[in-house]
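HUMAN: Mind making up another protein with tokenized structure?

ASSISTANT:
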Amino acid sequence: FRFTLAALAAQGRDIRISEQKIEGYQHFANKIWNAFRFSLPRLAPGPEFSAPALVLANRWIVSRLHHRIGEVRETLDGYRFNDAASAIYHFFWHELCDWYLEAVKPVFSEGSEAEIAETRSTLTYVLAESLKLLHPFMPFITEELWHKLPGREGSIMVSAFPRTEPGFFCPEAEEKLELVMEVVRAARNLRSERKIAPSDWIMVSLFPEAGASRRILEENLKLVSVLARAREVKLVSGASELGGAPAVARDVLVEIGVGAASGKKEEERLKQELAKLRETIRPLEAKLDNPDFRAKASPEAVAKTQGRYDELLMKIRKTEEGLKLLEAKA
């Protein structure tokens, strides 16, 4: 509840309490708890933390953390509590949970001893500093989780509030991982547009036009594979090798495909989906073609029907595109 009030407390604006917002930030509390449940078996007390050097994701998350620390301190000093809450929320939910934790899962199962040790140390440090940032807004859950961290004594209330450390910023790691993330987003968007189930493995083909992008992706093909749920990720030497209608991520062309068995299954699913969409849109099309409906219905009703029609039409076109691509590759 306190976090909700802070998130809504923009300067010069009255707060309108919303049960939906409160419920949304309750989900955020659950997200925090689940992130710790995953992380606790993988944490390590170890010596005083130093800037990571081996794993790209570790360098990236520490750099992003210190950007957020600076942002939170600045907004709190300016009494912009909603901006501070927003900065913490986006860091923990999106950067830490959505990207970092997913990126380091393979490190714990396949990394070298040195990489695992660095990742355990980084994860412990980032979670501890995140709890300190969250504590003014969510005192009870952060106090509870603070005592679950290894090597922590006393209350989180008397721990030093985080400060930025120049040595922990890493623009190079941020640039590299941002490119990886943009490529993964492009692959995910293609998966969604072509109605490929999230559980299905895909194959990703990449054509980076710039040498720097090619070098970054060559170093991080495994990471792209993990984040995009791809069975195979390959770099091709020309755009003509991609086929289909590739997506663009900066200067990288991105195309995806599915295996023969998955492709046949996906083709059948898309045909069923297309038939269902056409059946759904038919009565809306008839209603919009009826002059009596347009003359007698309220403008709101016409607009609502038109909006639903346009939405279904877009889905039909995307589904048809996906089906054509699958049929062409069969």
